[in-house]
Each structure stands twice: as structure tokens, then as C-alpha cells.
Amino acid sequence: MVAAWILLALGIGHIIYGLIWFKVPFKEAFCEGFINKFKSNESRRSAFWFTIFGPLLTMSGHIAIYAANMSDMGLFSIIGYYLFIISFFGVLALPKSPLWVALILSLIFIAIGYGWIK
Asked: Membrane-spanning regions, if any (predicted)?
């Protein structure tokens, strides 16, 4: 259950950090009308993709909490495998990033799913 809450917190943190860290690119895009204002500017693209990843992590955390409450270990495995694939390639692409946290969480989810960790 702790791992599920950590995943949820990671998602919320992604959103908050993204909105604070990238406040200038977001403000510029909103002032220009928002629609189609992220594709031609590198800082805006980075701001968008970093921040939009937050709701996906948050959703995964919510699903993991649900799986824990329902004792659905198979769902834990599924979340773990998806998180592993995403974070594995993320760590390869950006080794000095916080994606290591997601990689470790993915292994914990897989282990919980198979009953190796209770």
C-alpha cells in the first residue's frame, strides 16, 4: 500500500513541480491562447510533457491504491510492468534523472504482484 501512495505522490509532485518550474513557458502559452502553442517552442514542449506525465502517474497511483484495497495482486503486476518499461527506457535516455524512483517502485509493484513482498 505504501508503494501505491508513493506513486500517487510522485504524480502530484510532477504536476506541482512542473507548474512551478515551467511557469514562464506555461504563462507564455496561455497568454498566446494555449491551443497549438507548445509544438514550436522547446521549453514549452518540455513543460507540457513533463507536467502532463503527472496525471498519468497520479492515475496509476489511484489504480494501485484500488488494487491494494481489493487485494488484486494481478493488477499490481500489470502496473509494475508498465512502470518498469517506461522507467527503464527513461533511465537509459536520462540516467541522471529521478526516473530511478519509478524504476525501483516498478520492481516493488512486480514483487508485490507475485507475492514476493507482502
From this structure: 6-26, 47-67, 73-92, 99-117
